[in-house]
Design a protein that fits this description.
Blueprint lengths: L12 H8 L3 H10 L6 E2 L5 E2 L2 H16 L4 H35 L1
Antiparallel strand pairs: 1-2
């Protein structure tokens, strides 16, 4: 079966380290510093990263390495964006509710 047809659900810390060009100890440190980064552990106690975790790692790396944020600054930026995402989701739900209400009133 060709590799491009198989999509992995979980990645090891070594695989993620290679993907984002950061050492495993850096990823473990970021887990301590950023609440949004908490990969699950498998039965053997090893970290397993999802695609969402990898996106979070990439975002942290970009903020720290490319945009030169401090750890605190990156943490605040992530929290701000998280709050924006929640507000956007609430607005989408409200819009959906109002559309349904309008349709019922017509």
């Amino acid at each position: 079966m060709p590799e491009d047809e198989i999509e992995k659900l979980y990645y090891s810390i070594g695989e993620v380290s290679d993907l984002v060009d950061q050492e495993p100890h850096v990823l473990r440190y970021w887990e301590e510093e950023f609440d949004v980064l908490s990969p699950r552990k498998n039965r053997a106690g090893r970290r397993v990263y999802t695609d969402e975790d990898i996106e979070t790692v990439e975002r942290i790396r970009r903020l720290l390495k490319e945009e030169k944020y401090t750890i605190d600054g990156a943490r605040q930026a992530i929290q701000r964006d998280g709050a924006r995402d929640e507000i956007a989701e609430d607005l989408r739900a409200l819009r959906s509710f109002l559309i349904k209400l309008r349709d019922q009133l017509e």
